[in-house]
Amino acid sequence: MTDVSPQAPSDPWLIHFFERHAKDDPLRSVPARDFLDACPDQVAAEMHAVLDAVAAAPPPRFSGGGKWEAMHDDMAGIYEVRVSFAQYNYRLFCLLERNAADLGGPSIVALGGLKKPRRKAAAARDYRVVRAWADEFVKRRTVLS
Asked: 61-95: b or e for each residue (b if 16 or more CB lie within 10 Å)?
């Protein structure tokens, strides 16, 4: 871990993409990047714009306006970027790392995403996968370099 000087509360946060650890995924996939690459260009651009706005605010001060929401219950501690396009809702799941000297300072870590039909709940299995990625990140602390 490297030492990082404390940031002022209004300093922008960093954005990182979780990378699977070789012991958990020999291909070292980057689920959030893979998800964004599979999204329509307009959706990916809007998600990047929301991430940039949240990081600049920074997160503790950002007013979501329905685009950035905290999750609850089994998903508590995870946030989601929300974009609707055509007949689908797209979700990009993130963690906030306030004290992240190993990441270069306070950071948003994009974990992965999902696409679901509007007005339909996501499958419990999808949420379990996202929670597993969050747990893996907390354990391994691996991000795309």
From this structure: ebebeebbeebeeebeebbbbbbeeeebbbbbbbb
What span, in angstroms and rounded, lies between the C-alpha atoms of 94 and 81? 8
Percent above pLDDT 70 for the chain:
94
Q: What percent of the chain has pLDDT over 90?
A: 86
How confident is residue 3, by pLDDT bands cut at 50, 70 and 90? very low
Between CA 88 and CA 55 the distance in angstroms is 25
Separation between Cα atoms, residue 44 and residue 60, nearest integer Å: 23
Tell me how far apart the alpha carbons of residues 5 and 97 are, in angstroms, rounded to a whole number: 15
CB 88 within 8 A of CB 119: no
Instruction: Determine how many CB atoms are found less than 10 A away from the CB of residue 145.
Output: 6
In which residue are the tokens 């970027």 written? 81
Are residues 74 and 38 in contact, defined by beta-carbon separation less than 8 angstroms?
no
